[in-house]
Design goal:
alpha+beta; two-stranded antiparallel sheet; eight-stranded mixed β-sheet; globular; 6 helices; binds coenzyme A; Aminopeptidase; about 35% strand
Length: about 190
């Protein structure tokens, strides 16, 4: 199989692991498509990150209802990305790394990008919040562009959908608005 054909082959847990095994500092992290036997661990991880339910675009989404890629260091779950493929668009629903700045987030994003391309998607999009400076930097440095700002959308989600959303976020910035970013995916 030539390189281009290899790029297009369907992703399985094994191929994700082979392609995206990342050496985060000195620890080897393996990325796999989350399987049923991972569910309880992934559920606990998402709960710890207040990410079992995501409120965005005026809707509440249960993340466990959707596929995910999980990053493992041995038996320890060190990161999760959940996503939704819908026609030619893929939403990156959640992205969390247990340890920051060790490459886990980049590897998970690369895995979801690969899966989305493989599913025929031409657009990968994500919603973040006005306080999340780290995510804004992270996504823009990896090819995403800002497409939309929804002033007051987080305030409305807090009032109507998810009361546990805190009033202030990172750096004590009042948590109020949604920011939407997208990356165009070129089909190979
Ligand atoms: C956003 C998030 C997922 C990024 O994950 P991460 O694992 O920290 O991301 P990475 O480590 O791949 O990259 C972050 C930075 O660390 C740097 N880095 C990666 N490995 C490194 C290493 N071994 N040594 C030094 N720096 C390193 C990367 O270059 C990157 O910097 P850059 O953005 O300037 O290029 C993470 O911050 C997180 O979990 N945030 C909380 C949840 C959240 O806000 N998610 C997004 C919601 S939309």
């Amino acid at each position: 199989m030539d390189g281009a054909a290899a790029d297009r082959r369907p992703l399985t847990a094994r191929t994700i692991a082979q392609q995206l095994l990342c050496r985060c500092e000195t620890v080897e992290v393996e990325l796999v498509e989350t399987r049923p036997e991972h569910r309880r661990t992934v559920e606990a991880f998402l709960r710890d990150h207040n990410a079992l339910r995501v409120a965005r675009r005026s809707a509440l989404v249960a993340t466990l209802d959707h596929p995910s890629v999980s990053a493992w260091s041995g038996h320890e779950l060190v990161g999760v990305a959940t996503y939704v493929v819908d026609g030619d668009c893929c939403e990156l629903l959640t992205l969390h790394a247990a340890t920051r700045s060790t490459g886990i987030g980049s590897a998970l994003l690369a895995a979801v990008t690969h899966i989305a391309r493989d599913a025929g998607c031409t657009r990968l999009w994500v919603v973040t919040t006005n306080d999340n400076i780290e995510a804004l930097r992270f996504y823009q440095r990896r090819g995403f562009r800002l497409t939309l700002i929804r002033p007051g959308a987080v305030d409305r989600s807090r009032a109507e959908l998810k009361p546990e959303i805190p009033e202030s976020g990172a750096f004590d910035i009042p948590l109020r608005d949604e920011l939407e970013l997208e990356m165009r995916l070129v089909q190979g």
